From TrEMBL:
It comes from Azospirillum cavernae. This is Nucleoside diphosphate kinase. GO terms for molecular function: ATP binding; metal ion binding; nucleoside diphosphate kinase activity. Major role in the synthesis of nucleoside triphosphates other than ATP. The ATP gamma phosphate is transferred to the NDP beta phosphate via a ping-pong mechanism, using a phosphorylated active-site intermediate. It is found in: Cytoplasm. ATP binds at K11, F59, R87, T93, R104, N114. Keywords: ATP-binding, Cytoplasm, Kinase, Magnesium, Metal-binding, Nucleotide metabolism, Nucleotide-binding, Phosphoprotein, Transferase. PROSITE patterns: NDPK, NDPK_LIKE. Its EC number is 2.7.4.6. HAMAP family: NDP_kinase. GO terms for cellular component: cytoplasm. Gene3D superfamilies: Nucleoside diphosphate kinase-like domain. The lineage of its organism: Bacteria, Pseudomonadati, Pseudomonadota, Alphaproteobacteria, Rhodospirillales.
Length: 140
């Protein structure tokens, strides 16, 4: 197995409810290390660009509004198979379909306000990490 890095975002629904620590415990208990972390307010341009792949989807404008509705916590998670492992810890996009014990099952409010983002493949992980972090901000 390979050690990977993946981009995680704790979304505004979760920061609003003060769930950062409980969500970080899920990552750490699940075997991932938080090797970079910063709390920021995304701009509309940043959110639109980050979710650009979804620009044609009906939910795009609502998603961007949601992502700038409050602070987010940007993170780099590291560990064995971190990209897939994080997706397991997060659970399915729609909390109605998320497995017991996952972040989205426990904390998500809706399919949109689903508490966390996680990269979905090695290429997107590398792009998403570079979008938000300088190499010097990541300390493994
Ligand atoms: P993912 O976050 O599990 O990778 P994606 O399909 O990449 O899911 O969607 C990105 C984000 O867009 C989701 O996490 C969620 O916040 C939002 N989203 C996805 N599908 C819907 C939908 O059908 N309605 C509203 N928001 C959605
Ligand atoms: Mg996705």
């Amino acid at each position: 197995m390979a050690v990977e890095r993946t981009l995680s975002i704790i979304k505004p629904d979760a920061t609003r409810r003060n769930l950062t620590g409980k969500i970080n415990a899920k990552f750490e208990d699940g075997g991932l290390r938080i090797v970079a972390q910063k709390r920021v307010q995304l701009s509309q341009a940043q959110a639109e660009s980050f979710y650009g792949v979804h620009r044609e989807r009906g939910f795009f404008n609502d998603l961007v509004s949601f992502m700038i509705s409050g602070p987010v916590v940007l993170q780099v998670l590291e560990g064995e198979n971190a990209i897939a492992r994080n997706r397991e810890i997060m659970g399915a996009t729609n909390p109605a379909n998320a497995a017991e014990g996952t972040i989205r099952k426990e904390f998500a409010e809706s399919i949109e306000a689903n508490s966390v983002h996680g990269s979905d493949a090695p290429e997107t992980a590398a792009q998403e990490i570079a979008y938000f972090f300088a190499g010097s901000e990541i300390v493994g």
